[in-house]
Design a protein that fits this description.
24% helix; 15 helices; alpha/beta
Length: 759
Amino acid sequence: MVTTTKTPGAIYPNGSAVAKDDVRLWMSEVVAQVNAELRAALTDGGRAFVGRAEAVAAGQEALPAYVGLVFTREGTALVMRGPSMSSDDPLFATWPHWGVIARLNPGVAMRDAGVMTLANVAGTGDAITADLPAAARENGVTATSGTSIIEIIPIASNTGATEPTLSIDGGAAAVIKSETGAVLAAGQLVAGRSYLLRRRGGAWRIVSGGVALADLDGEAAARAADVLALTAGIADVANQLEAPNESVEQDAVNWWVWDVLGRALMGWSGTGLRAVLDDWTIENAAPRILGGDVDVVQQTSETLDGRVLERDAAGNAIWLWRNGDKGGLDAIMAQAFWDRGRIAMDIEGGLLSTTAIQLCGVNGQSLTVGGDYLAGLTRAALEAFMGDGCLQLSGTLFGDNVPIVDTLGPRSKGYNPSVPATGTERARPGAASAGMAFPTFAILNAHRRDLGLPMVPILTSCHGIPGILIEDMDDDEATGSGATTVWNNFSFWNAQAKAVADAAGKDILPGWHLWDHGTSAKSSPRGGYLGKWWALQADSIAYWRSQGLQPPRYCMTQPSGDANTTNDGATGWSVCDDILDIVEQGGAVLGTCQHWYEIADNNVHPDAVGTALASETCAWAMAEVEAGRAWSILRPRVLSNAGGALTVRFDSLREDEVLEIEGAAKYGGAGIDAHLGFELTGGAVTGVTVRGHVVVLQYTGAPTALRYAMQVQDVTGIPGNRYTAHRGLLRTSLQKPSKILPGRMLQRAVPSFTLSLGA
């Protein structure tokens, strides 16, 4: 309702002349009150447009902030916009901006986060065809995505003659695999059974339906029957074992075996075993005992003091029997046998220093915890290397007061700082995974022995936490999330290690600090990790010196990328180059690069074998550096770049090694092209030649940078994938047999790098 100072009747009395000021006042009051009521009605009422362009065309003045919300239809999405939102697609450059608050797209939600039940399923068990459901089409879904989940009910079972495939809406057929990415056996797709499939790379993987309740019931029944049978068998054996052990003494012989008629067959006399033999045995044994030559094929050959039992292909005796009072079996044993035996029998203990000790810690993320044990490397096999050459603190507790019993360290639980260490004991690998501390430092003295170096007992432990950021590894609560657990682990362990060494009267020699970190910094800009690492090293060195300890040498590994490096931003995995910068600037020895080793989880983590190989390679590196030999492989130097040919030289290689190409079978040709892992920014590699310390690349274009083992790709969809996205085939000729894993070789792989080629 509009109320004015004067009514129209008062302004126009009896048709006489009108006062203009009264008319102006009346009109301004009417307009003001109508506008006020309209604004009240429109405030937070919102505006809707058929498209973004229409909203822009309406103009900023038509969209005052008090409207509250603006809705625009864009494609299949309903976009909700707010006046103060400016970061995501604003309609206007000045306030009110009307930028995006949310995009509501039922089609995308259905495609990427929901389950779509396919329609019109047809084809065969090996070549299935189907259509997207009508509901998906109505919401704008025209194809599946890399995260789609679908339900399908095959009309026939797969035969196993070929891998089953699925074609949707007549599109390209994609292979269907098991939940682990394995090839499906015949009958694993059952007609009439409901399956949920999820897209993984170029294939569909079964995520549900592979096992039905009926299958589980049948398996459970079969296993229950087996358990009952086993229980009965065990009970019978137990009854027999618990039966009294009966024997009868006669003529100074204790007889304990009889036949069914009660006749004694076997017993024990004062001089040995006595047995009753049958006629056939006696008849056949007598000629061999009493006669001369025996009519058998001669399998051995005489020597001066024995008989050769086995020869190698060259005719050398490798297994024989020595005659005489001190005779017995004799053999030529492999070096690996002696290496294991020396440690198992603690022979090397006599060669260890009895007056000195080294403190060698390990810091980093989940790779320092290591991969799980498996048939290729069990915990028992690794424990064979336990000895006095590698020690751990005894008596320390987790923060929850549980004893710490291995070299994995306290991790995120931290130490109970009120409980000091009581001494040292032989180091142990972890219960489920080895960690890096044990396989590095339990074997370091063996590699020192190979080079004639002094052997010193090593006290070790891990300090890090899986996934930890470098900002959270210092003692500054103002950096990162404010957590200081890793620093507390590091400082407490060093203080306790020094205390027990001092109490034992040991000279503490400078050791090694093994650094395996960087995956958590995969999105860090170039140089960002570098500065933080140097700052943390400065803090660490200051701490060691404050404790009266000489700082150790650093040995580090280079991160490998993960299995999908496509979502890590424009500077993704620059940390690999930052790590190499640290090494080139003299901050650490580059022990090895993680891209060389197999992963077990299609992400970034190795199994126990990969952990052991990387760790022992670092131990080899430490021994070589202690012997005064060069080790770290750095970026190459450009020798020439002209006429479509780039020549680089690896000046850091040693004189006793050359570049070699690992067999293509390492990756099976997947995730790497014919150019060994080399790529060019601004150009394309057309050929690669490796000779000595030099690599020559032929190319097209105008390249500005050379990259090696730094691929941006997603390899998670490769069947049975066992490596990260960073892949390269260059190593050097310098190799050494592993002491932990007989039959495997330790290798010097060329690290990932980016090399600027200038303007």
